[in-house]
Amino acid sequence: MLSHSENYITDVEQLELALSEPSDSTVRALAGLPGDILVLGCGGKMGPTLARMAKRASDAAGISRRVTAVSRFSFANLPQRLKSWGIETISGDLLDPNFLQKLPDAPNVVYMAGMKFGSTGQESLTWAMNSFLPGLVANRFRNSRIAAFSTGNVYGLTPVSRGGSRETDELHPVGEYAMSCLGRERIFEHFSTVAGVKTSILRLNYSTELRYGVLVDIAQRVHAGQAVALSMGYLNSIWQADANAMSLQALLHAASPSFVVNIAGPETLSVRHVAEQFALRFNKKVQFDGTESHDALLSNAQKAFALFGKPRVSAEKMLDLIANWVERGGATLSKPTHFENRAGKF
Fold it and tell me: What's the pTM?
């Protein structure tokens, strides 16, 4: 894993190695987890390194386990990369019932399929992916443990002074994307309650690496001399490897009724402060647009820390790594998070 003396990551290969490095607690968890792992919707931003971490943790634990990645794989070279890491791949559309039915049985399923960006204007597909597909998956894999990714957006905006939404808080999703994500949760909860499907619901907020994430968005704006929006003035951020590690450990906690946990960084970060810190690292001036509101999309992840341990990479370390990467022109996924959007339109 990244050491405290390591101030930069040289290339994508080293980055993906770091993002898939399992924590000791993840190795222990997968040592006690019986059976193979199927990762549905594995072609996104987190899926490849999560699947690779599952394989690396299993190998480190001395467990012989198949890890299979399922996706439409819009990036043509991704299946080969996954195979080079010892991960099996299956290409297809999860919304196709015939394809879904032919997938291999697996005692453990990580559900990562979903739609966020482009959801405005494609509301029907968003609801199909985020709320209809979970029912198909829960029915197909009703004998499996399922760790299902959700989002902190289901909470809606919360006063900054509260220190983030907790798992027991009422949910007030804003916009169709967040509402469809609550639909995803409710469908999994239904099958967990009436059919006994053991489920963990993972409310993530926000995962960050060097090619993508809220902190990368801010860094790029500061580096380019563009104004940083303060409409969403506060945020949580967690290094993707730490989010992967907690998500895999959550398979052991899958239960009926559903187990729910927030996965987020420990700090409430100020967008203004983060931008100023990047400006110092870049030796540039920073411009701001607007002013902070008293509320934001924030999650309290103390439950996750008690169960899985605290993140290994601090916010300060993420700022160092991202600043170096951006300044050197490192590759990005060219997918802005639109974190500043308060209306829930993506």
Answer: 0.95
